[in-house]
């Protein structure tokens, strides 16, 4: 056995710790703690994401890509500059809808989905198309809109007309008045790319579990607006059906981000895929897990929902298939997590080391993660040492 094989190999692959640390920051803190105890460990840092916040950073970091900036309109129509990412080979663009059309860009008093638009997201897609990419990954978490994606589609050249043959207004208000869609001026580069929508919900476009009813209230919709928006989405779905032959109204996932997932599926042939699958493919996660003796992952909270589309949960499932133990680190460990030990997690650790406020936990997150990682490294040192002794005895 060569000396390199005797060194412990640890894949450090956390998600972002929400409101506290990026996935890259978390990976650095974990690695720093490990190295205090295992200075010779072979550590591979691989920040991950699941299609939501942090996807851009994870993909850019993991593929040696770059961030670019482009002028766009925010949900209210104000001019801002938003980032998007390119992979290292320049073939794939990563766009987070929240950067241009996110709820965080709009103060509570302006959150009215009848008026807010996804136009800026389409502008980011146009910027990526000019770069000659082959694929676009669109992360749609954190959106402010329930406009059925018509704003983004308008930016891409689609035209929407009302019964008076006039262009409709932007936002949900315009959505309800659409009677006709024209595609004569659509950006021709759209035909040369594949758009992959990172979609981790199964809500259909319309109905009680649809975009308006489930996501509308989160974005400022009153009960009356919810009913109006649902009717508008029903009508829009029927218009897409007549134009393309695709009935998107009841397809799981088409209600995501105010219906943009559905309209993109119907009008630009976008594919709806789990966000973690898209990111993991780009980062070659399976290959890196195979090489590891242990995987350490984590995020702000680990709970019973973690296995359902969350980055650490999907990583644990993959590692289980490859028989690699997984350790989870979190700001808090939720209730009813016993099921996670059947989903690939070997052990779970909270970084909280004493009673403290959420504010203090957030501000001290890097130090707390580092300290907990140091303790985990002590266990791994002993465990790996025992494993080597057994291997050497029987080899």
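Sequence proposed for the structure above (395 residues):
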């Amino acid at each position: 056995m060569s000396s390199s094989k005797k060194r412990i190999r640890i894949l450090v692959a956390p998600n972002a710790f929400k409101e506290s640390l990026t996935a890259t920051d978390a990976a650095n803190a974990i690695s720093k703690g490990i190295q205090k105890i295992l200075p010779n460990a072979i550590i591979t840092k691989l920040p991950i994401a699941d299609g939501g916040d942090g996807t851009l950073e994870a993909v850019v970091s993991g593929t040696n890509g770059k961030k670019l900036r482009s002028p766009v309109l925010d949900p209210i129509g104000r001019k801002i500059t938003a980032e998007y990412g390119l992979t290292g080979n320049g073939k794939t663009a990563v766009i987070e809808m929240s950067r241009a059309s996110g709820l965080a860009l709009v103060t509570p008093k302006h959150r009215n989905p009848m008026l807010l638009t996804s136009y800026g997201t389409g502008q980011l897609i146009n910027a990526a198309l000019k770069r000659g990419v082959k694929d676009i990954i669109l992360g749609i978490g954190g959106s402010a809109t329930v406009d059925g994606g018509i704003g983004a589609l308008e930016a891409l050249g689609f035209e929407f007309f009302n019964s008076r043959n006039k262009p409709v207004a932007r936002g949900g208000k315009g959505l309800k008045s659409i009677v006709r869609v024209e595609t004569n001026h659509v950006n021709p580069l759209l035909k040369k790319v594949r758009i992959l929508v990172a979609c981790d919900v199964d809500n259909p476009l319309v109905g009680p579990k649809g975009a308006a009813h489930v996501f509308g209230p989160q974005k400022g919709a009153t009960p009356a607006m919810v009913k109006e928006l649902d009717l508008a989405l029903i009508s829009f779905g029927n218009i897409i059906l007549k134009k393309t032959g695709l009935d998107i109204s009841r397809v799981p996932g088409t209600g995501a981000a105010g219906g943009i997932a559905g309209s993109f599926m119907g009008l630009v042939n976008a594919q709806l895929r789990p966000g973690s699958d898209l990111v993991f493919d780009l980062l070659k996660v399976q290959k890196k897990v195979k090489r590891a003796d242990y995987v350490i992952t984590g995020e702000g909270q680990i709970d019973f929902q973690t296995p359902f589309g969350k980055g650490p949960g999907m990583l644990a499932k993959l590692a289980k298939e490859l028989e690699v133990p997984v350790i989870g680190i979190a700001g808090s460990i939720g209730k009813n997590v016993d099921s996670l030990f059947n989903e690939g997690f070997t052990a779970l650790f909270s970084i909280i080391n004493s009673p403290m406020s959420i504010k203090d936990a957030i501000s001290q997150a890097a130090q707390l993660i580092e300290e907990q990682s140091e303790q985990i490294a002590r266990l791994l040192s002993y465990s790996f040492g025992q494993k080597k002794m057994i291997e050497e005895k029987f080899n």
